[in-house]
């Protein structure tokens, strides 16, 4: 089998051949053009079963058991079928298609209007309306295709969930490898963007959970960003955390830079919020309030468990009507916090609503004035409680 190209088509190759390796400036510059490169291409050719650059598109195929079936239907018409043994679709199986486990290839597949996947045992065609293969010539509408139709802020939580499951050789590329998708979304919305989160969804998207807490990402992004941790993450949607904003984003301070994917360490989120609740960690998934009430379903997802112990004083920030963040005070300035986890009470039964209200409304649990940014340090005169997240 050979690859042949239509006369007049231009063949481009990217990644290691076109971007200067180990050059952060060139990576940032070229990665931001990926929306145009892949979004405007005629055809993306993916060596989906290649484990590295030493392998290509073609492999010795494994014969799949098959049989021929002839059926007669009601009007005496014969229907012929070739049946093959059932197998997991190769694009769902990273053992068969290692390319699907790599972070940099996520936007290549998502942005390209057409992709031919060369898998180990078959060729797969994918476009914006179809996903067909040699073993399954019938159109298979799958979740990834739905994403391709909705490269938007509204669908950003799904994009983050799928992308964060992929691996990167260098964790510093976690935000850069999304640059093409960010550019595609921005071209539709013109919304502001910082550290993997859009201004339009800033409050909601600060509320996310991890399947398994892992190593802390080198601090190039703020703790409130999903990109802070090296592990698959799952932002919550409004159905899970509620649709009513209890806290309000006042402003976002970010480093002055023409590159939205540069070091975001100093990005600061200013919030107006109801009284913070003060608690202490009593168990790995439980905190105890000042009034003695115990709260379960707490997930300390931003730090390894050995960084949060029974002596740690934490603060609970009500972000949405069913979504809270767990914060730890920094030593830098008054009213400044890091995000160290989340409290998910979306699974609580309705009869616990009264208990939750008691916890929120009991002034014994409320933090004092020293927990907030002093009024002389901010310009938000109408806001009673102002804090910053870093």
Give an overview of the whole structure:
The protein is α+β, with helices and mostly antiparallel strands and 390 residues long. It folds into two domains: 11-149, no CATH class; 156-165 and 190-390, no CATH class. It has nine helices and 20 strands. The chain has helices spanning 24-31, 34-39, 104-111, 143-149, 156-163, 179-189, 202-205, 238-241, 353-361; strands at 44-46, 66-72, 78-84, 114-118, 123-127, 131-133, 193-194, 197-198, 208-210, 233-235, 248-253, 268-272, 277-283, 286-289, 294-295, 298-299, 313-320, 323-329, 336-343, 386-389. The strands form five sheets. Strands 11, 12, 13, 14, 15, 16, 17, 18, 19 and 20 form a ten-stranded mixed beta sheet that branches. The chain has a four-stranded mixed beta sheet with strand order 1-4-5-6, with no helix packed on it. Strands 2-3 form a two-stranded antiparallel sheet. Strand 2 and strand 3 form a beta hairpin. Helix 3 (104-111) crosses helix 6. The longest helix has 11 residues, at 179-189. The protein is elongated and about 80 Å long. The mean pLDDT is 77. It comes from Sclerotinia trifoliorum. Residues 15-108 form the Heterokaryon incompatibility domain. This is A6492f16-b65d-4ac0-9ebf-a128801492dc.
Outline the low-pLDDT stretches: none
Order of helices and strands: HHEEEHEEEHHHEEHEEHEEEEEEEEEHE
Give the mean pLDDT: 77
Structural class: alpha+beta
- For the record, the count of structural domains works out to 2
Q: Quick one: biggest sheet? A: 10 strands, mixed
Beta percentage is 15-25%
Backbone CA Rg: 25 Å
Shape label: elongated
Tell me the number of helical segments per DSSP (H or I, 4 or more residues long). 9
Helix content: 10-25%
Calculate the terminal CA-CA distance, rounded to whole Å: 54 Å
Strand element count: 20
């Amino acid at each position: 089998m050979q690859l042949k190209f239509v006369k007049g088509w231009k063949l481009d190759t990217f990644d290691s051949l076109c971007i200067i390796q180990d050059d952060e400036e060139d990576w940032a510059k070229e990665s931001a053009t990926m929306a145009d490169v892949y979004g405007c291409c005629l055809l993306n050719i993916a060596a989906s079963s290649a484990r590295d650059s030493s392998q290509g598109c073609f492999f010795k195929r494994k014969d799949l058991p098959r049989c021929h079936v002839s059926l007669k239907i009601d009007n005496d018409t014969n229907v012929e079928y070739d049946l093959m043994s059932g197998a997991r679709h190769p694009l769902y199986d990273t053992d068969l298609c290692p390319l699907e486990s790599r972070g940099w290839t996520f936007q290549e597949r998502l942005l390209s209007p057409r992709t031919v996947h060369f898998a180990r045992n078959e060729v797969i065609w994918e476009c914006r309306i179809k996903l067909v293969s040699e073993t399954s010539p019938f159109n298979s509408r799958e979740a990834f295709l739905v994403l391709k139709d909705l490269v938007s802020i509204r669908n950003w939580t799904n994009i983050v969930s799928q992308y964060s499951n992929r691996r990167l050789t260098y964790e510093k590329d976690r935000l850069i490898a999304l640059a093409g998708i960010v550019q595609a979304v921005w071209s539709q919305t013109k919304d502001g963007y910082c550290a993997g989160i859009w201004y339009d969804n800033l409050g909601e998207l600060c509320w996310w959970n991890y399947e398994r807490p892992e190593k802390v990402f080198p601090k190039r992004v703020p703790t409130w960003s999903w990109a802070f941790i090296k592990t698959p993450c799952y932002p919550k949607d409004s159905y899970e955390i509620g649709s009513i904003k209890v806290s309000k984003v006042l402003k976002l301070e970010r480093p002055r830079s023409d590159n939205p994917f540069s070091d975001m360490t100093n990005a600061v989120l200013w919030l107006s919020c109801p009284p913070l609740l003060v608690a202490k960690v009593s168990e790995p998934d439980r905190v105890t309030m000042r009034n003695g009430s115990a709260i379960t379903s707490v997930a300390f997802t931003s730090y390894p468990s050995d960084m949060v112990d029974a002596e740690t004083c934490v603060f609970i920030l009500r972000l949405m009507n069913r979504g809270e963040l767990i914060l730890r005070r920094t030593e830098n300035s008054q009213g400044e916090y890091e995000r160290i986890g989340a409290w998910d009470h979306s699974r609580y039964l309705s009869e616990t609503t009264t208990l939750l209200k008691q916890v929120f409304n009991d002034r014994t649990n409320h933090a004092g004035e020293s927990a907030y940014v002093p009024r002389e340090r901010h310009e938000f005169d109408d806001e009673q409680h102002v804090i910053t997240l870093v």
